[in-house]
Design brief:
With about 160 residues, this protein is α+β, with helices and mostly antiparallel strands. About 30% of the residues lie in helices and about 20% in strands. The strands form two sheets. Strands 2-1-3-4 form a four-stranded antiparallel β-sheet, covered by helices on one side. A two-stranded parallel ribbon has the order 5-6. Helix 2 packs across helix 3 and helix 2 packs parallel to helix 4. The radius of gyration is 17 Å and the shape is globular.
């Protein structure tokens, strides 16, 4: 992640009907650092990550990535990549196409996206399995493919 950005969460809340899942969290995470949310099930860890990534709307507050307020940006414009708990790999695609999928959506030509996907698979020591489908991999191997898919976009923030 060559262009890491600070994440600034400012009084962010998430309310589902009468239930407050996240209450006015404020946190600054310096660029290039690691931050870990710990807590019991249902305390708002995943909801907070999903709000940072733009996969969940924010009830109140703001999120900045670097100097940009991204609160109302769709996920594709935020500069984040999120690796979900369930890896969400496409079962009908081989590993190259799974890793290259976001580049395909951005209109990157096939040769370039395949080359970048192979580079990411090599980084994850998964290049020998490039033509396999996710069901032919162990859980740990699937996790590395999901990480390669998240990193291929060169995100400003990687959310796990």
């Amino acid at each position: 992640m060559s262009k890491a950005a600070e994440i600034d969460i400012v009084s962010v809340s998430k309310v589902y009907g009468a239930t407050t899942a996240v209450h006015a969290i404020s946190l600054k995470i310096p660029a290039g650092s690691y931050c870990c949310f710990l807590g019991p099930s249902g305390c708002g860890k995943t909801s907070t990550l999903r709000m940072i990534a733009g996969h969940e709307s924010i009830s109140s507050g703001d999120i900045r990535l670097g100097k940009t307020v991204v609160t109302d940006f769709p996920p594709a414009r935020r500069g984040t990549a999120m690796m979900f708990q369930s890896y969400a790999l496409f079962p009908h695609l081989d590993l190259i196409d799974n890793v290259a999928f976001s580049l395909k959506m951005k209109g990157v030509d096939k040769a370039e996206r395949r080359a970048k996907a192979l580079e990411m698979l090599k980084l994850m020591q998964m290049e020998p399995y490039a033509n396999r489908r996710p069901a032919q991999l162990s859980g740990g191997q699937q996790q590395r493919v999901a990480l390669a898919r998240a990193l291929i976009t060169d995100p400003e923030a990687l959310l796990l």
